[in-house]
Amino acid sequence: MGPVKLIEYKDANAQVRAVYDDIMATRKTDRVNNFWKALANDPVTLRRTWESVKQIMAPGALDPLTKELIYVAVSVTNQCRYCMTTHTASATNKGMTDAMFHEMMAIVGLANQNNRLAEGYQVEIDDCFKEQS
Amino acid sequence: MGPVKLIEYKDANAQVRAVYDDIMATRKTDRVNNFWKALANDPVTLRRTWESVKQIMAPGALDPLTKELIYVAVSVTNQCRYCMTTHTASATNKGMTDAMFHEMMAIVGLANQNNRLAEGYQVEIDDCFKEQS
Amino acid sequence: MGPVKLIEYKDANAQVRAVYDDIMATRKTDRVNNFWKALANDPVTLRRTWESVKQIMAPGALDPLTKELIYVAVSVTNQCRYCMTTHTASATNKGMTDAMFHEMMAIVGLANQNNRLAEGYQVEIDDCFKEQS
Amino acid sequence: MGPVKLIEYKDANAQVRAVYDDIMATRKTDRVNNFWKALANDPVTLRRTWESVKQIMAPGALDPLTKELIYVAVSVTNQCRYCMTTHTASATNKGMTDAMFHEMMAIVGLANQNNRLAEGYQVEIDDCFKEQS
Amino acid sequence: MGPVKLIEYKDANAQVRAVYDDIMATRKTDRVNNFWKALANDPVTLRRTWESVKQIMAPGALDPLTKELIYVAVSVTNQCRYCMTTHTASATNKGMTDAMFHEMMAIVGLANQNNRLAEGYQVEIDDCFKEQS
Amino acid sequence: MGPVKLIEYKDANAQVRAVYDDIMATRKTDRVNNFWKALANDPVTLRRTWESVKQIMAPGALDPLTKELIYVAVSVTNQCRYCMTTHTASATNKGMTDAMFHEMMAIVGLANQNNRLAEGYQVEIDDCFKEQS
Predict the structure, then answer these.
(1) Of the four listed, A82, B11, B77, F50, which is most buried by Cβ atoms within 10 Å?
(2) pLDDT at residue E13 above 60?
(3) Are residues B107 and A57, on separate chains, in Cβ contact within 8 Å?
(4) Interface with F, mutate which of E36, E81, E103 (most F CBs under 10 A)
(5) Percent of chain D surpassing pLDDT 90
(6) Running DSSP on this structure, what letter comes out for residue F60?
(7) Interatomic CA distance for residues B80 and B78, integer angstroms
(8) Overall average pLDDT of the B71-100 stretch
(9) Numbers of helices and strands, H then E, in chain C
């Protein structure tokens, strides 16, 4: 009923170990976060979630730091302490300064406020923004 | 009870016009979004909100495009169609490509998923992330 | 799959009519809102929900206008357009002025912002607020 | 990565102390809540947020207790424990009784329920509520 | 300001004891969860909430286990740790296996992701789904 | 800025067509929902999301109807009209009766209410639910 058991590498089956190995190789680290050790209770979800993270958070049109900032901003909006903590750490590893963190937080607060002002006043979308993108 | 009346420039008092003028000057445009025309029903909130936006969204440690991407990501998470539409337009004006938009959306979806997985499995924060920042 | 059918008085069974009659008598009106006509598709939920509304929104330690303001504030936070529209109408009927509406909206925006700042900065509760109430 | 460091008065710079002094003078107290000590890591956000709170929560068309009740209702909806705790304390200082607290909580629960019933049944807004306010 | 006092059976008045007795009789147990002991501070809300739970969670067109799974899924989405913990226990008592729990969690994550993709891309409802149900 | 363009089969590239073909084959239908036509603007996300849906929503320890009910319950909680509409249709195809739909809705409303009551009263988890699962 409480937190699920964390599956350590030594107790993991081959399927789980393969994911752990890929996480450590991809991230160039020798540890695996508790998030993955919890998901390992469901190896299918562990693999699917890791493959999604690996694909989505890889460098692309957006650089890795910008991606982490977006991830943290969503996690703060949803108030998920685990995710904001671990991804703030990732963002820091990728070069986020204190000033960047504070600016990101200010935007999260502002957008959460303005989302409600726009909805509460039922503001209609400006004609010039109505064309299909 | 429905949407509030939008206050056009010609119908605005001096206090509201001063804000509209500052919006247009700051953004180098000759139009004011409906959001501001709705807030103008409460000139104190109009001024406070505009001053906050002007301060927070100005270039800083984060560049203006990154700031817009974070703003859109929060608005999509909260499902505020007005804000996601207008700030997607702003992001596009600041150089967001289609590829960037799609990557931002993928991260928003992923974080919304993983926030629930982390909370639902009640994952405890890793010891190495517990030090005070 | 879309909106449920609204059950009009003339098409309602005795169980539903009894609730409609009580709504109209309690509210001193000759019409029933669409919310109730939608819930009437499930007469048990119609009755339970109406009994809850009647009990909770009745005058008590808080006056009816304050109750409506709280109801609207939650509905704006959750961005439920139906509830914010109908309860803004109720609040207006109970004496809400435009100035009151604008102040309520400003608080909703502020709290939505500060909730994220408090969570994102992981502010610990002050010792002086930790005693049991 | 974890909670930010709280900036105490003795360690604060002049800019931060000026805000702390204003908080204590406005609230007629000799202490500053942890929320402000956390925001002090970003003095610009500290000042902006305090100025917003001072403006919005001051007596106006709505009395200070009603304002606190609305603030708490939003914070409970968003499940922000820090904000609900500190603003419940503020509400109590401004005259909130236990009975008022319980009634506010009942409304928050009810609105959160009915928001989903209205959305899930996709209830259309009644014609009589569609006129512009 | 902090958690409310829990009202134990021996300290409860007759009105509260009657609800506790009904909870224990209905659930065939000799204990009452903390949720009810907290609500007992407001006996009217205690009774109303218990009557709602008893009515809604009883076997009906949906079996009790399916009902608990839906309840947990909502609580995980809202990130309410108390409710997800206690209703996961209830679901387990009603036959939920680990495999069922993991599948429910995967759906919760998926829907939270896809809700944002659908909203963020502003997908219009397919014509074939627009008929009234 | 508004809704993205829907990619029809005849305009789709080979990568997108392969996913559309798999959707139609898996679901034994000759049409593809707008959700997929919107995601097709980002073929990588289209494929990843479809593979996740196919894996998660397939029959397993939970039957397909129960899975759809959980999906709808989350979508109603998040107030995503597109997802609740299309997955209500899927649930109906898999045998959901009106009575089941109403019971699911009642649980969603109840859990959304009780989540806030549990959080607002800051109910502590009962000792008996604290053991690790």
Answers:
(1) B77
(2) yes
(3) yes
(4) E103
(5) 93
(6) S
(7) 6
(8) 97
(9) 6, 0
Are C52 and D110 within 8 A, CB to CB? yes
Has residue B133 got a pLDDT over 90? no
Single out the residue of D77, D84, D26 nearest to residue D53, CA to CA: D26
User: Phi and psi (nearest 5°) for F20?
Assistant: -55, -45
Please give the average per-residue pLDDT across B44-68, as a whole number: 98
Min distance F51 CA to chain E CA atoms (Å): 11
Chain D residues with CB under 8 Å of a chain B CB are 1-5, 44, 48, 51-52, 55-56, 125, 129-133
CA atoms within 13 A on the CB side of A42: 22
Question: For residue A31, what is the DSSP state?
Answer: -
CB contact under 8 A, C67 and D4: no
Radius of gyration, CA atoms only, chain B: 19
Q: State residue E130's pLDDT score.
A: 84
Shortest alpha-carbon distance between residue B73 and chain C (Å): 14
Q: Look at residues A31, B7, A39 and name the one whose alpha carbon lies nearest to residue A16.
A: A39
Inter-residue contact E108 to B120 (CB < 8 Å): yes
Looking at residue F74, its pLDDT comes to 98
Is pLDDT of F57 > 60? yes
pLDDT, residue A45, reads: 98
Confidence (pTM): 0.97
The sign one gets for the Cα dihedral D59, D63, D68, D74 is negative
pLDDT at res. C131? 67
Q: E16, E42, E70, E84: which to substitute to probe chain D, counting the most D Cβ within 10 Å?
A: E42
Among E79, E106, E109, the residue with its CB nearest the CB of A79 is: E79
Residue A20 C-alpha, separation from nearest chain B C-alpha, in angstroms: 16
Q: How far is CA F83 from the centre of its chain?
A: 6
The whole-angstrom separation of Cα C53 and Cα F19 is: 48
Chain B residues touching D62 at Cβ < 8 A: none
D38, D42, D47, D51: CA torsion to nearest 10: -60
